[in-house]
Amino acid sequence: MIDQHLPLARLADETAEKFQQRFGRPPQWVVAAPGRVNLIGEHTDYNDGFVLPMAIDRYTVLAAGRSPGGEPPRLRMVSGHKQGEAVIPLNIPLQPGQPAWANYVLGVAAGFAALGAPLASLDILVESNVPLGGGLSSSAALEVAAATLFEVVTGHRLDPVEKALLCQKAEHEFAGVPCGIMDQFTSALGRENHLLLLDCRSRQAELVPLSDPAVSVLIINTNVKHHLAGGEYARRRQQCEAAARHLRVRALRDAHLDQLKTQHDQMDPVVFRRARHVITEIGRTVRAATAIKASDWPEVGSLMYDSHDSLRDDYEVSCAELDEVVEIARKIGPGNGMIGCRMTGGGFGGCAVSVVQSAATRDIAKKIHGDYQQKTGIQPALFVSRPAAGATVLKA
Ligand code: GLA
User: How crowded is residue 254: how many other Cβ atoms within 10 Å of its Cβ?
Assistant: First the structure.
């Protein structure tokens, strides 16, 4: 019931081998960047609030080498997942195009060019065991892996926060998603055995240890992705900005629940509810970090369920399948080792995250797998991850 996956070293070896097979020589560089899961603090990053994510031990790996005789300069990219290859000329202004997956790398290449660190011709082989489109930031993993590669190739080292910002810009401009900073920051700066309590305004992260072997993070992929996601994300952002303007604050981070309540009758009811989610979620995130530090698991669980309810009812970014997983988790309950569960990431499908007593993980996974499949007719995928380290260079 619990998916196993290749450890990073094996995935990196396989990627290097595929490079060798495809290009007839070993790669000069191999780099990796992880996906992420957010324990709590959803849709708060673009409101200057707090988030509490961790990098997961699933990675996007790039094996690369300079292309012999590569003039005019171009990136040749081959994906282990998608058919075909993408060849992108670098001697003309970089624009988003097809195939769509290549845009993440292209956006990062554009960022390096803008810094005065243009690329020469490269062959790149892309492999990943981050589930694609599952709300675990496969796109941020690809962007941060590309930035890590381009750092070693150009010799232009970035401060890690600057690197996360460059990748976020790539996502905005080349993938058209006005995302916050959480995903790229976590992929770049994740720390083994730690959650990051990230202040998305100051971009300072406090490390919150999650190293107790008795507690595990179990991720449940609903294996659905509803198409609303892109446009609805941008609309939520606009609604938050409208709420902040109404409340005359710089961002919803600066608003208080009491202040919001006094405006109830003057505000559009939908905008009011969006703001209520963000303001209460920021509070829950800070409290959850404190509770985790104190191993106060009942408090952690109740904050996770409250977060889910708020995302479902006030922010309206959940979906029937995510709600189903969370209901199954509630029924399993703390007596059977289920500490808490909620949707994670942007929403409208993708994954739920749960915190469980490690000893009960197998039984819980079996129960969720069976009940979810029975209720929805869909096979979920479940896996466990310890908090992992951020992007790394494996060969240079
Ligand atoms: C997506 C975005 C993040 C964040 C989450 C919701 O993952 O990329 O910046 O806004 O949604 O918390």
Answer: 16
